[in-house]
């Protein structure tokens, strides 16, 4: 039972990170119809930047600087993609994919290829019905849950949040109302990147980062987003949590090397199911049923 509880808590922590990355995919796609494959790289930026700065600065200062850097990098990616390739959605997707590949080389050039981390919050594991729970895991779960709640309030009650929602639901009507949808798109990239950077700086004390880990993070986050059909934030969050739990259980009871296989298998299954659904709808419409 203690092994199961430990796996569930661990899965909830890593699942919260996947949910944050997945929500980032959804935020950008809803506003711009673009899949940002550089999302995993922005998680790595937040984690590695914090780890490097924490060696010489206080942790809160390092974390704040990393969050600002992540938001700025995301806004830059959004501006370069949406302004430079306006009206060419497939080209924009390829640009984000190219930036994701290039980011790995940039991170190696800046910080090397050696895994980086920094001390977690609390050095003593807590006993929870026989399971050993790290305070950092609880911090990850609590902070990301709080951020999800803040984002919900932001999109529901703030003017900027409502403008982003309007740009996502009906871009044409939003433009008629004077909302600059390109600016909203860049803003969506920035908010999404801020979320990814936060996920990275919370995760890196638990899982040391190398520049190559962005691929795994992007796959898991994208799988979570696909659970939400790239448009439903709540389903994307639930998808990330479910994926984290599945991977933790596989690592605890089977083989940790199969964790990423779970994400890929889920992603392929979801894409095949969605493709079959679209095909069925097309045939039904085509036959006049």
Question: In terms of topology, how is this protein built?
Answer:
Elements: H1 2-32, H2 39-54, H3 59-84, H4 89-111, E1 126-128, E2 131-133, H5 135-157, H6 159-169, H7 171-176, H8 181-203, H9 214-227, H10 233-253, H11 259-286
Antiparallel strand pairs: 1-2
Helix pairs in contact: 1-5, 1-6, 1-8, 1-9, 1-10, 2-3, 2-4, 2-8, 2-9, 3-8, 5-6, 5-8, 9-10, 9-11, 10-11
Description of the molecule:
By secondary structure, the protein is mainly α. It has one domain (2-286): ABC transporter involved in vitamin B12 uptake, BtuC, CATH 1.10.3470. It contains eleven helices and two strands. The protein has helices at 2-32, 39-54, 59-84, 89-111, 135-157, 159-169, 171-176, 181-203, 214-227, 233-253, 259-286, and strands at 126-128, 131-133. Strands 1-2 form a two-stranded antiparallel ribbon. It is globular.
Task: Kindly summarize this structure in a few lines.
This protein is an all-alpha fold and 289 residues long. 77% of the residues lie in helices and 2% in strands. It has helices at residues 2-32, 39-54, 59-84, 89-111, 135-157, 159-169, 171-176, 181-203, 214-227, 233-253, 259-286, and strands spanning 126-128, 131-133.
């Amino acid at each position: 039972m203690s092994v199961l509880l430990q796996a569930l808590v661990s899965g909830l922590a890593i699942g919260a990170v996947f949910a944050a990355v997945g929500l980032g995919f959804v935020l950008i796609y809803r506003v711009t119809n673009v899949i940002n494959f550089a999302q995993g790289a922005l998680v790595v930026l937040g984690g590695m930047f914090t780890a490097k700065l924490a060696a010489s600065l206080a942790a809160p200062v390092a974390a704040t600087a990393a969050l600002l850097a992540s938001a700025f990098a995301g806004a830059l990616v959004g501006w370069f993609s949406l302004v430079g390739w306006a009206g060419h959605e497939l080209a924009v997707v390829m640009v984000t994919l190219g930036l994701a590949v290039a980011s790995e080389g940039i991170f190696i050039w800046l910080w090397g290829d050696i895994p980086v981390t920094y001390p977690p919050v609390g050095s003593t594991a807590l006993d929870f019905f026989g399971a050993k729970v790290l305070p950092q895991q609880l911090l990850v779960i609590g902070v990301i849950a709080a951020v999800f709640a803040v984002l919900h309030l932001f999109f529901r009650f703030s003017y900027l949040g409502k403008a982003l929602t309007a740009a996502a639901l009906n871009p044409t009507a939003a433009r008629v109302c004077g909302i600059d949808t390109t600016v909203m798109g860049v803003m969506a990239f920035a908010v999404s990147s801020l979320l990814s950077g936060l996920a990275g700086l919370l995760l890196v004390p638990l899982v040391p980062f190398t520049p190559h880990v962005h691929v795994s993070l992007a796959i898991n986050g994208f799988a979570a987003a696909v659970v939400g059909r790239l448009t439903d934030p709540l389903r994307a969050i639930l998808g990330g949590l479910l994926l984290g739990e599945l991977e933790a259980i596989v690592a605890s009871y089977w083989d940790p090397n199969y964790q990423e296989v779970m994400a890929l298998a889920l992603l392929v299954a979801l894409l095949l199911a969605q493709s079959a659904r679209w095909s069925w709808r097309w045939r039904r419409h085509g036959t006049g049923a």
